[in-house]
Hints:
The chain is an alpha/beta fold. Helix content is 30%, strand content 23%. The chain has two domains: 5-81 and 203-274, HAD superfamily/HAD-like (Rossmann fold, 3-Layer(aba) Sandwich); 86-199, Hypothetical Protein, Haloacid Dehalogenase-like Hydrolase, Chain: A, domain 2 (2-Layer Sandwich). The strands form two sheets. The protein has an eight-stranded mixed sheet, sandwiched between helices.
Amino acid sequence: MPVRLIAIDIDGTLLDSRWQLPAANLEAIRAAVDVGVEVVLATGRRFDFARPVLDLVPPVRLVIVSGGALTKRRDGVTIARRTMPRATARRVLEATTAFRQDMGVVFDRAGANQIVYERVAWNDPRQRAYFEHNRRAVGEVSPLEACLTDDPIQIMASGSVERMRALAATLAGMPDASGFEVALTEYPARDLSIADVTAAGVSKGSALAALAQSRGLARNAVMAIGDNHNDRSMLEAAGFPVVMGNASKALKASGWTVTASNDKEGVARAIERYILDRTEN
């Protein structure tokens, strides 16, 4: 069965290492849509943070955001929402107080307080640019548990690779760890890692599988392209998983098809070769 649906990660995949969209990637996406393939973006970013990228790719009509917790149309309308029960979020926060300075709670709401921290570390060199870019959406509540007036979609944390691995280990050791999912995104060259905690069964992969099912598509009609640990579930959900040339060694070791890096238009190369049946350059 030919591929009818492609899910593409944003950071490290669709965008190059300067966070720019290569023209060849946009052209390939346009060509895929023109032959009847639906293309969606799938990211750990919040919708507002993903919107500027979505604006660069007009053929894309849907985006999976917040690690699979939300699927939205490009106009912001939510078509699938998978929240984390407040009780679960509270247990996660109470078990990770040692990491409190790194953690924020994310809600599906407009305007302020989309991301709530106990204290915003405005001067943290790893997070300063992110906080500045998202200034209007960030709020502070102390203690952080007090922000849980409604169900969040995600708890997120960022810090060094070692620290986020320690956070993930702490979460894995909780007695009720089966009640939530943890996905790590790592950038070793920058010593930066992002940990996303969502409700049980929520991931990029489950969101992609649900979307494919809603389209009546079998797994082998789905392609996914990604580069990092948090893309694994999405790649596993696709019948045709493609790993970027700049992907982590662990992801490449999975035996999946490898395309060029994000700085060499790997998304375009994959679409051209495997969807448009063009000879790889």
